[in-house]
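The records we work with from here on pair a chain with its fold. These numbers are not coordinates but entries in a learned vocabulary of local backbone shapes. To see the layout at work, look at the sequence and tokens printed below.
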Amino acid sequence: MHADEYLGTLGPERLLALFHDRREATEGQFALGSTAWDAFRSPDPRAVLGVIQAGARDLPFLASALRRHLEQFPSTANGLSRTEEQALEAIAGGSNTPGEAFAAYQKREEPVFFSDAVFVSYLKDLSEAREPLVLFAGGGEMGRPHADPLWEGLWNQEVLLTEKGREVLRGDEDRVRLIGIDRWLGGVHLRDETLWRWDRSTHTLKRDAA
């Protein structure tokens, strides 16, 4: 079955139609899936880029999914991942709560990419940095997603873009150099001393000299 729909929100009738349209996976699809998984787990993200450039024709949605994954690497322009940039742009554009920002963010994604919990965890990282890029007006810790009373109130809590956040969004400051980074993306551990960046203009990866 090949579908570009998000299965989590589909109703029973559509899911049943997709089930009846299922096909047996081919050897080529299994082989490509294995190659893509090895690339995703690799500590060198250029392996993912290699799968994309090879075409990935046996799995028609694989290349776009892997490309979206690479867009989560810090940008060469300002150090923000695509999710972080879209989140800050949403807040700068008038989305005054995490819930509003998530709704605005989702509208700019082609297929659904992140869940609400992961999205807000990114805001959490930006708010608890040594130079916060966003601030929650109520202050305090966020709690654990969906398992803490603080989480329910978070969605309607006012979120603000700091001046440093505006500077990073404009490209006058760099997110990584300003607040550092410690994040896993597949098999790549992004840290200040082992940093890969995504060049949006050329759709290529670059190793940061830092």
Remarks:
- The longest helix spans residues 27-41.
- The beta strands are 134-136, 159-161, 182-185, 188-191, 196-199, 204-207.
- The two ends are 44 Å apart (CA to CA).
